[in-house]
Amino acid sequence: MSSLSAPPRPAMCPRQASSSSFAEAFDDARRKLDELGVREPGKEEEEEETPSPALSSSSSATDESAPSLVDTESPISPPTPIGAPTTPAAVDPDVVDNFAFAFDIDGVLIRGGQPIPEAIEAMKVLNGENEWGIKVPYIFLTNGGGKSEAERCRDLSQQLQIEVSPGQFICGHTPMRELADRYHTVLVVGGEGEKCREVAESYGFRDVITPGDILKANAATAPFRKLTPDEHANSRDLLARGNGSGRLSDVVIEAVFVFADSRDWASDLQIILDVAQSRGGRLETRSATFDEGPPIYFSHNDVVWSTAHQHARLGMGALRRAVETVFEATTGGRGVLRTHAFGKPQVSTFEFAARLLREWRATRHRQQRHGLPPTTTPTAAAAADAAADVPPATVYFVGDTPESDVRGANAMDAVAPNEWYSILVQTGVYQAGTEPRDKPRAVVGTVLDAVRHGLRREMEKLALARKPVADGHMPAPVEVRCDPLVEV
Ligand code: G3P
Ligand code: MG
């Protein structure tokens, strides 16, 4: 019997994990954020900063010969359409709200499409199957993509045997939705078949072109890439567009969006560079100065990621590097290439997660008061609302990739009013015994160890502060030993 167990509850039966209560509550919170227009003070300025030719961050800024590679953090926060509001559920007294978890997916919960066994256990622990009988809120923050959020959540619900809702889920391309009004004709790259086009159109993009459409119109675009009959059938006929002029050069790409990992690097690289070196995005044209190409948005910047292979595999960040390097090689170092990345480690992605957790907490607090006889004056109630309108004091961010998960959580911890505690697991990109470039607060074996580490740390805080766990429950005085593999 571990030293940490609280006296069992009378007549306790194994508690049904009610992940649905979190799923619904986060849908409510997400809907509320959409209604609120999702803006924290100062967000507008950030958006104004969205890429302008003047900005250059590449090392070649001083070296006249090198093209200037403009890459910026895209500060866009992702509203997601959520279903009809649910009737405010009775607030579950076992749910804690002073700490929460945020999970990376590949290499932490899932590997090569299969659930990591400890992940299923970890979700049960968070949904009440722990010695304190408490439930801890959690959200998912992945750089992955290539399917709609709803479809990914259906997959995840099956894999983790709990209900996961789009309200709890943020993926790499989710923020791209905000650019649907800014560009009309866009090139969407990556993913399986037509999936990314469907996601882009569901985000509101009006004229979505894929590399397959360009290859269908001009097979010589990528000499060694032959469309399969299905791909040919699914691709759209660009030559029949508009006035049926049959000229590909009538098509003007206003922006390129790489939604998910490319399934064919050679042809995608060729087509992205054709657009980047074109005259203002006009297909089949070549700019004389190589500085008039449209912006290229990548949904994340992970150079490697963890999947079924024992060693990490190349990811979208590697394709981005290839685009930048080959652009430089094929322009003789002239011109301008504008690339942008969303996803982790961008702080704006974590800021959106923080807003989601904060809104979940505020919504829950309002529901808690809902239907209760008003015991205080409206001003006191408003003050209580304001006090509750803060994110949980600590968010445990569990990831497997130091350069995106740990770097992002640490960067957020440096600027956030609450604590973002980075935990690195050894089931994905990070290899045990190696020195992570970005230092996590703790290194543990699996996500289950990470959840236990966070819970123990919180119980230690409470025990030390001698505060009740959740309404009416006192933790047994404990002598706690945090045993992550490494606590940094
Ligand atoms: O393509 C996705 C991959 O790079 C990482 O996904 O879940 O580990 O952020 P995730
Ligand atoms: Mg990962």
Automatic annotation (TrEMBL):
Residues 1-89 are annotated as: Disordered. GO terms for cellular component: mitochondrion. It comes from the Eukaryota. Residues 51-69 have a biased composition (Low complexity). InterPro entries: CDP-alcohol_PTase-I (IPR050324), HAD-like_sf (IPR036412), HAD-SF_hydro_IIA (IPR006357), HAD-SF_hydro_IIA_CECR5 (IPR006353), HAD_sf (IPR023214). It holds the Pfam family Hydrolase_6. Residues 27-42 have a biased composition (Basic and acidic residues). GO terms for biological process: glycerophospholipid biosynthetic process. This is Uncharacterized protein. It comes from Thermothielavioides terrestris (strain ATCC 38088 / NRRL 8126) (Thielavia terrestris).
